From TrEMBL, chain A:
Domain ABC transporter residues, every copy: 6-228
Top-rank taxon: Bacteria
Organism: Harenicola maris
Molecular functions per Gene Ontology: ATP binding; ATP hydrolysis activity; transmembrane transporter activity
Gene Ontology cellular-component annotations: plasma membrane
Keyword annotations from UniProtKB, A to Z: ATP-binding, Nucleotide-binding, Transport
UniProt xrefs under InterPro entries: AAA+_ATPase (IPR003593), ABC_transporter-like_ATP-bd (IPR003439), ABC_transporter-like_CS (IPR017871), ABC_transpr_LolD-like (IPR015854), MacB-like_ATP-bd (IPR017911), P-loop_NTPase (IPR027417)
UniProt cross-references to CDD domains, sorted A to Z: ABC_MJ0796_LolCDE_FtsE
Gene3D superfamilies reported for this sequence: P-loop containing nucleotide triphosphate hydrolases
Name recorded for this polypeptide: ABC transporter ATP-binding protein
Keyword Nucleotide-binding found: yes
UniProtKB/TrEMBL annotation, chain B:
Organism: Harenicola maris
Membrane-spanning intervals of the chain: 20-40, 261-285, 306-339, 359-376, 397-420, 426-448, 469-498, 714-740, 761-787, 807-831
Protein name: Drug:proton antiporter
Tagged with keyword Membrane: yes
Superkingdom of the organism of origin: Bacteria
Localization per record: Cell membrane
Keywords annotated in UniProt: Cell membrane, Membrane, Transmembrane, Transmembrane helix
Amino acid sequence: MSETALDLKDVCLSLDGNAGRVEILRDLTLQVERGETVGLVGPSGSGKSSLLMVMGGLERATSGQVSALGRDLSAAGEDALARFRRTHMGVVFQSFHLIGTMTALENVATPLELAGHRDAFDRALQELEAVGLRDRADHYPKQMSGGEQQRVALARAAAPRPDILLADEPTGNLDGTTGAMIMDLLFDLRERHGSTLVLVTHAPELAARCDRVIRLVDGRIDAAGGGA
Amino acid sequence: MRQAWRIARRELRGGLRGFWTFLICLALGVAAIAAVGSAARGIEAGLSRDAAALLGGDAEAEFTYRFATDVERGWLEEIAEEVSEIVDFRSMAVVTRGGEAERALTQVKAVDGGYPLYGEVVLAPQMPLAQALAGVGDLPGAVMEAALIDRLGLEVGDTLALGTQDFVLMARIEREPDNAGGGFSLGPRTIVATLALAGSGLLAEGTLFETQYRMRLPEGANLTALKAEAAERFESTGLRWRDSSNGAPGLGRFVDRMRSFLVLVGLAGLAVGGVGVSAAVRAYLASKTEVIATLKTLGAEGRVIFAAYLMQIGLLSLVGITAGLILGAGLPLIFAPLIEARLPLPAVFAIYPAPLLEAALYGALTALIFTLWPLARSEEIRAAALFRGMDGPSRTLPRPVYLCVIALLCAALIGAATLLSGVPELTLWAAAGILGALVLLVGAGWLVRRLSARMAKSRALRGRTALRLAFGAVGGPGGEAASVVLSLGLGLTVLAAVGQIDANLRGAIARDLPEVAPSYFVVDIQSDQLPGFMERVEGDAGVSRVDTAPMLRGIITSINGQPARDVAGPHWVLRGDRGVTYSAAPTEQTKITAGEWWPEGYSGPPQISFASEEAEEMGLSLGDEMTVNILGRDITGTITSFREVDFSTAGIGFILSMNPGALAGAPHSHIATIYAEEEAEGAIARDLAQSYPNITTIRVRDAVERVAEIVGGLAAAITYGAAATLLTGVVVLIGAAAAGERQRVFEAALLKTVGAVRGQILGYFALRSLLLGLAAGVVAVFAGALAGWAVTVFVMEGTYRFEPVSAVLVIGGGIGATILTGLVFALRPLAARPARALRARE
Ligand SMILES: Nc1ncnc2c1ncn2[C@@H]1O[C@H](COP(=O)(O)OP(=O)(O)OP(=O)(O)O)[C@@H](O)[C@H]1O
Ligand SMILES: [Mg+2]
């Protein structure tokens, strides 16, 4: 098996916005090793979220090659991508994105269920316990605070024991203390499962917790900011 | 108010986008009612414009089984400038070809030279009526309706017989001015000259026919006074007066009835639209929660905000109602040529303000009722909503003031409909029905949500993601369950009710009746023909039973020496003339409930046996004296017995029977019912017609089919109305699906993110639609069956039977509609790239 978790070659992404075609990612080439944690930083609008989406197969690159765990994502169909994510990827968003018509437990159980695990609900309950929300299992997202919702989202992303965790400013909508708790949980989960983590963040101290920091400027990797 | 108006104006700058469900729902409901009202008004106007032609004269005097006496005719000629005499009766038209006789029942109109006083008979080939009726050579002419010509396989120039008289078919009747709407007749029309019937044996004394004397009155004749005079002088001799002030009272009433029914269906449609309106307003206000909370933060009072949004909704309602009125007034105008061609009635299509006002009133009240509830909640949005997520107001009842206002508006709507519909009792029942259905559907919506939430959590569903998701979506917070079940359910309820009633009606007519009903109804058997007639039918092995009775017509003029109406009120038995018979002994079927039948060979003063149910209704008792005018002669008898008379089996039933001596000498014929096996029917009819050309045999099966046809036509019209209601329901459904589309795009993206393939997502969407459609359909069938039962049992006094076919169609339709819209609106969510959908929610 490949030692590279994520492998991007000459990736370009351009989208048709209202004001014409916008080039968002330009000729990006980068590799993330298995087990590595990478912090993705850069000014607003530089393309961090877009890059994360491309890595997760949620957005298709306009050109270039994207592969994850040795598998070519750029060639895979929509459903194949979904099946791949089921078992290999967990995604956490800035605004939580829980399914509003499902309880916390159901939200966490869904990816397990989709992956065909018979014990989806028992495992989901364990995951909720791991983020300290066992007693909120039957609550709907609307009945929870932002921090609690994000913990549920974390549990959902981590439940299938994904090889790759993608997190887009998971603390961006939360206050400092709650944010710090979420971050601890995130790194904790990563540590336990040995997942690869790509974390988009604006906070330098969070980036500093990562093995490596990649700085994006205007859709390109800023050589000056790289390293660690 | 100023402030509110300024806020409203700014909010409306965004245009009407997002309001199309609101507008279409309101417009459709208003349009349906306006169109029905306008069309009905048009027909009423047509009827009154052509009243004289429809009636055949400015006024008409009608007699049963006899011509006018010289005194009567003298009076008619005195008051009129011109009098035309028409004889109307049923007969058999017979064509003989190579020894084989073909025969068909026809409604014959025998006319004099004056006919028609108004309007024109249009014939094909074109020729004046007089020329056609003159015939060719010694043979008089006849003209017939196309249906009859086809049935008998005739060509113009062929010979046919009525009774013992031969006629030449001269032309086809294209238009008969005094036959608009046809009334109810069992056979197609034949017109001949009365003089030509002299040798036919058809108008002998005692046979069944009606005469009508149509009059052209002098300009400015006082109809009311003439009518009163006619009543005073000739009511007791059976003269029935009609004039052009109510030329076609039956038709007018019929049109009015249809209008009432369709307006009621339209109101149900408006209620369905109201649900859509309410859902649209709720969705709009939910999207405005942030704006409202911000305005409150800036110091706007609840009142101002309520007023601002009320103004917006008011303006939108105005737009919707106006669109509905334009549509409703325009449709009949646009389709006027089409409608006129298919309608057997004259109509003047124009823009009539009254029905439009009525529709606008209903529309405005409905819009208010259904928007007030969600609007009232806008007051309760607190500034804090901004910071506590966009939760919208909590699920509480609006303030009591608003509840009172809503109740008052409901009362106003129902009151207006009750007053304006012309069928107050039915309207109240319908309103109760609609309210009941609404309550039932709200309850069903709630139950569906609760059950779904329960199901979503059930262990049995773990692992069946699509099902669990579907139940979760229906049962979870913010689901569309309530409004979809309510709107679609109400639309389907109306359709289910109409379906149940229609199927029961048709079933009752087509199935139940013929089992007990006779095969043939025979009229005009002369007394000297009776023995031969009996011999033929009783000797037939296929005949199980024959009943005959002498048939006379009489008018009950007084009871115990007082005018009958003063004693018994306006009972239907006293309206016009009734069949009267005589019999020496009670028949086998007779059940005497009180008193005693006259003894055999009785020849004393006249005795009467009266129908027991009607006697009770009229307050008659044994020993009462009753005077009956038969063919101008008063006969007074004593009621000595009551007996049961069953009119439901199409057998022979007379309200009034007398001892033979009482009616001796009055000219009359006999009627008979023949109960025969279907195989024997043809031969009997043939032989009877051969031996007795003057008698008329009416095949009960044909008559029943004819009635079923007419009922079917009515049901079709009402079904169209119900379909319009359903259309509104579907619009609400589409509106809900469209409003939910963004949410689904997002959900699909999320599900893809956590690993769901498109098939699973599609399955989830389809199941979710199926659940809602099924719920709406099942509740609709239940409510529809309830309504169907009520109408069948209480309005039509029939027996109700659940009709599964219509029910299955309704449930299937509900599921089909929701799945179809669900899937159409699933296309975009399925196709969307997760990244973009998720980003849109950042
Ligand atoms: N659907 C779209 N169509 C056109 N342009 C888009 C679309 N989505 C994003 N963009 C543009 O792409 C660029 C990159 O956006 P992206 O969200 O990846 O930036 P980001 O680095 O995550 O910024 P932030 O730190 O603010 O989250 C931005 O300039 C944005 O305006
Ligand atoms: Mg971003």
